[in-house]
TrEMBL record:
Domain Polymerase/histidinol phosphatase N-terminal: from-to ranges: 344-423
UniProt KW DNA damage keyword: yes
Protein name: DNA polymerase beta
Keywords recorded for this protein, A-Z: DNA damage, DNA repair, DNA replication, DNA synthesis, DNA-directed DNA polymerase, Exonuclease, Hydrolase, Methylation, Nuclease, Nucleotidyltransferase, Sodium, Transferase, Ubl conjugation
Keyword Kinase: no
Species of the source: candidate division WOR-3 bacterium
Lineage, uppermost ranks: Bacteria, Bacteria division WOR-3
Entry's EC annotation: 2.7.7.7, 4.2.99.18
Cofactor: Mg(2+)
BP-aspect Gene Ontology terms: DNA repair
Protein purpose: Repair polymerase that plays a key role in base-excision repair. During this process, the damaged base is excised by specific DNA glycosylases, the DNA backbone is nicked at the abasic site by an apurinic/apyrimidic (AP) endonuclease, and POLB removes 5'-deoxyribose-phosphate from the preincised AP site acting as a 5'-deoxyribose-phosphate lyase (5'-dRP lyase); through its DNA polymerase activity, it adds one nucleotide to the 3' end of the arising single-nucleotide gap.
Amino acid sequence: MKSEPSRTKNKELVQIFETMADALEFKGENPFKVNAYRKAARVLGEIDLDIAAVKEEEELMRIPGIGSGIAKKIIEYLTTGRIKKYEEAIKGIPVSLLELLKIQNLGPKTLALAHKKLKVKSIDDLIRVIENGQLARLPQMGEKKVENIRKGIEIFLSTQQRMSIYEATEISEEVIEYLKRKTKVKRISAAGSLRRMKETIGDIDILATGRDGEKIIEKFATMPGVKQVLAQGSTKGSVILENGRQVDLRLVPPESYGAALQYFTGSKAHNIRLRDIAKAKGMKLNEYGLFKGKKRIAGRTELEIYQALGLEYVPPELREDRGEVELAQRHQPFDLITLEDIKGDLHVHTNYSDGEASIEAMARQAMEMGYEYILITDHSKSAKYAGGIDEERLLEQIEEIDNLNRKLRKFRILKGIEVDILNDGSLDLDDEVLKRLDLVIGAIHSGFKRNVTGRMLDAMDNPHLHIIAHPTGRLISRREGYDVDIGKIIERAAEKNVALELNSYYDRLDLNDINLMRAKEAGVKIAIGTDAHNREGMGMIRFGVGTARRGWLTKTDVLNCLPLRSLLEWRR
Ligand code: DGT
Ligand code: CA
Ligand code: CA
C-alpha cells in the first residue's frame, strides 16, 4: 500500500515543503520563495526516484524543479533528520493554524489577525468567532467577508471528509492488484461512486468473486497500510487505512456478480428507478439477482440484468437518474467518448514556464500514449509566479517546436499558449505572435472577482483565441471558482465557435459534468486537456474522459477526438 518502506522519505519531504510554503505565506514572505517550496513538494511526490537513495546534491539538482537551495535542504534532512529553515519557518505558528490556510477566502493576513486579536488556533475557534460576531468586528472585515469565509469553511469540511478521485483510484488499484497477487479472487472490480467516476469519493467499494471468502477477506484485513478493521467475515470486510480512508470489500457468488456490481455501483437514485421497473414487470431486483418468483432470471452480468429489464446497457458514469433510464427504455445507444478516442492532449506545460520536462520529453510521452499530437501551452508573461513567457521567448519556443517536428515522424507538436486574460479583457501577448500559433487557450489567473464574465466574453472577441481554459476556475478541494455566469459563456462560445476546456487535473475537472451537459446542448465543442506539468501528469486524461462521460459527451463533442487535419481545419 501507500506506506511501503520505499519512498517514505519522499512523502516526508513533500509534507515538510508543503508546510513550509504555507507557513511562509502566513508570515507574508515573498511569493517566489513560497512557490519554490510548493513546486519542490509536487516534484518529490511525483518522481519515481527514491530520495532516500540519493547521496549527492548534484544528483538532486538534475531533477527539474529542484534548485540548489532545495537540494541542500533535502541532503540536510537525509543526513541529520531535520531542516533548520523548516523549524524557523513554522516557529510561532500552531500546526492547527497551518491547516486553516487551506480554507478558501481566508487569506494569511486575515488568519494572522484573527490569531493575534481573537486567539484563533483551530477550526473550532474560527467557527466560534464567526458565530459570536467577533470576526466581523475586526478592522477591515465586515459581514460580507465573513460570509465568504463561512462558505469556505463549509467546502473545507465537506472535502476533508471525501477523497479526490485521484487518491481513490490509486488506493483502489493498489488494493485490487494486491488481492489479485495474494489471493484466489476471480473477478474483481471497483464499484460505488468511484466506478461512476464522481469527482470526489466517500469510501471505496470493491466487489469480487472467488473461493474461500474467509481467507480472501483475511488477506484484505491484514494487508499493509491497514490501521483498523471495522468488519471481517466470509463475505464482507471493511477497513480504515493509515491515511484515514475506508475501503469495503464484498465477496459474492459468480451467479450474483452482475447483480451485486449493479447494486453497489449505484447511484441509489438510479437503483430505485431500476427496482421500480422490475416491480412493474412483476419481477424483483436486488443485489443477488433479478427474480421472477423464486427463479433467478439474470445476475451473472450487469448486461443481462439491463436486458432482462428491457433496457439498453447504461454505462456506470451515467447512473445518476438524470434521464439515462428513459433513454435506455427507448433503446438509444449511449455511445460515450472513451479513452481510445482521444487523439492528443490539448493543455501541456514545459520547462519554458512552470513545467518540469522539455518539449521533447512531453511529446515522447504523448507518442507512448498513442497520440497523434500534443498542444504545448505554457503560461504567458503576466503569470509571473508560474514563470510565464513573453513574445520573444515564445518565438524561441516556436522555433524549437519547428525543429522537433522535422525530426518526429507521424506525430505533430502543435504550437500554443495558455495566455492570461488580463483585467481589461485583452490577451497578455501580441496578436502578431499569437497568430503564428496553432491554437490559443485563454485563461483567467488573477482578478477572480473582477468582472470575469465580461473579460471572458471580450477575450472571445479576439479572433486568435480558440479555447477558454478551466472556465469556472474552481479547485475542488479549496475554492468555489470565479464569480462567472457560465450560461453566458456557453452561449457566446457557441456563437463564436470557441471551445471550452474540460481540464482533467483531478482538483479542477472544470467544466464539470453538469456544465458539460449544458455546453453539449448548446453545441459547444469541448477541449480535453490535462494541464500536465510533467510526463506523469498526462495520465490525468482518464479523469477528464471520466468526467466527459458523466457529462454525456460523445467523441463528436470533443475537439481532440479529431484527427490532426480536421482539428486544424476546425480553427476559425
Ligand atoms: P460515496 O461513497 O459517498 O462516494 O458514494 P457511493 O455511491 O459509493 O455510496 P455508498 O458507498 O454509500 O454505497 C455504494 C452503493 O451501494 C451506492 O452507490 C448504491 C448502493 N446503495 C447503498 N445504499 C443503498 C440503499 O439504501 N438502496 C439502494 N438501492 N442502493 C444502495
Ligand atoms: Ca462508496
Ligand atoms: Ca461503501
